[in-house]
C-alpha cells in the first residue's frame, strides 16, 4: 500500500450488533474494502462484550487499519441502554488500544452532516449516500452503512485538513 493511502476502520458500536467498515483513503475517492456486522444477540452479558472484543481484534489483525473512526455514544433517555452501549464501545476502544490503532471519535450528528449534509438524517439517507460515495452495487446493511459513514467522515475531515476536535467545539468548515 503506497504511503499516501490510509486504511480507515469505521465502527458503529452496539450491544447486539456492531457495524464495521473499512475503506482505503488516498489522493482521490475512497475505496471500499469490506464491511459487515458483528452479531452477538444470542449471547448474554460479558460473553457479548468478549465476542465484540475478539471480533474487532480479528478485523484489525486481518486488515491492518491505520486508524479507527468510532461513533461516539449519544445520551439515551434510558440510562441502562446508555450504559450497555458504553460497555460495547469500551471493548471496541480497548481492542484498538491493545492493537496500537489510533482512534478518532465522531458524534452521530458530525457523521450525518458530513455524509448526508444534514445532522439529523435518517438511516435510509445514510445508506443511500454511503452506497453512492463508495460506488457500491448493493445497499449496505444498516449497521455496516453507519460504520462506513464513520470511516468516510474521517476521510473527509482528513482530506480537507480539518481537526475534528474543532468541529465538535462548534467551528464550521
TrEMBL record:
Instruction: Kindly give the CDD domains that the UniProt entry links to this protein.
Output: RuvC (cd16962)
Q: Which residues form the active site?
A: 12, 71, 143
Give a Pfam family name: RuvC
Cofactor section: Mg(2+)
Details of cofactor binding? Binds 2 Mg(2+) ion per subunit.
Tell me the enzyme class.
hydrolase
EC number(s)?
Answer: 3.1.21.10
What are the GO cellular component annotations? cytoplasm; Holliday junction resolvase complex
SUPFAM superfamilies on file? Ribonuclease H-like
Q: Where in the cell is it found?
A: Cytoplasm
Q: Which residues bind Mg(2+) 2?
A: 71
Q: Which GO terms describe its biological process?
A: DNA recombination; DNA repair
The record's catalysed reaction(s) read:
Endonucleolytic cleavage at a junction such as a reciprocal single-stranded crossover between two homologous DNA duplexes (Holliday junction)
The family classification in the record reads:
Belongs to the RuvC family.
Assembly, per entry: Homodimer which binds Holliday junction (HJ) DNA. The HJ becomes 2-fold symmetrical on binding to RuvC with unstacked arms; it has a different conformation from HJ DNA in complex with RuvA. In the full resolvosome a probable DNA-RuvA(4)-RuvB(12)-RuvC(2) complex forms which resolves the HJ.
Report what the protein is called: Crossover junction endodeoxyribonuclease RuvC
Name of the gene: ruvC
